[in-house]
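Re: the request from the purification team.
They wanted to know what the chain is likely to look like in 3D before they choose a buffer screen. I agreed to run a prediction and write the result into the notebook, where they can find it.
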Amino acid sequence: MKRSPFGSVFTWLALLSLLVISSCKKKELSETAKKLIANQWKYDTNANLDAGNQNLENSTGIKSNFQLGGDVKKIADFLSETLTFGEDTKNNKLAYEKKYGEGILSTSALGWWELKDNDKTLVLKEWDSQAGKEKDPIEYEIKELTSEKLVLKRKSDNTTHIYLEKKKFEQKAQEFAEKEKANQAKPIAEIPEGIDESKIKKDWKVGDKAEIYWKGQWYKGSIVEGKNAEGKFKVRYDGYDSNWDEFVDVRRLREIQGGQQVKSDEKKSQNEYKVGDKVEILWNGSWYKGSIISAKNAEGKYKIHYDGYDSNWDEFVEPKRLRALSK
């Protein structure tokens, strides 16, 4: 009996169709991919500034507490990017949108994304609509991913990019505005109250160590420039760069208080705070109640939690921003 030449052809066609079907079958998403897709992620400007401040201090020793506030922060928050991850079912790819601004004032960039290195690396491949091709891929190490927070570290320059789940971001922005408003509602005297002007030292010299009154608290520093025409001395705060230098009235100066006020707080904070301790934390010129939630780290900072605020406000602070809770 003669064998049909079409038998083998049909067999190969059947196998080929199975391969095509299997290749088109939707790939199961990993848990990391599902977490990324589940939320919209908003770039947290001040959190990223904090990270930059910390990197600056780690690399140069220069301390900076630069943050945005007021209308400037509102504008920055409005313009900051929102990342949305999803799937392009037409092309059977993972797609994303990076949007700047909100509503009709927004602009967007589109592209594809993938995970590699056991979901530890996120790769973004933005589409260049003018050139009609993908741009060079950008790789990020996923440092943290929860239902509320995404922290990426760009591998090309080691910069940190911190995002919050969008609703959580909006909640935090509202809390920040309320906190700022409350702070502004309690004006702090430029000159300390209740001082005996007859005991004020007026003959300061360049190089003298002093304590300087600033927004309700005394900070250590030194005189860096003699009295000007207004009778003020230029000071520099210990541990801060020259951007913080300023001319101050002699009523804002006093000699170092041996073992009192600032020094007692610093002594207390050197090694006596422990997890669970109730403290007051200096933030933007005012003291807020909170507690220690993590012991001192390698940089000598404690992690704290503010009473009445969620964990997004938790931060590592230097001992000089802490004091024992007044009883």
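For the purification team: The first strand starts at residue 40 and ends at 43.
Please add any questions underneath this entry.
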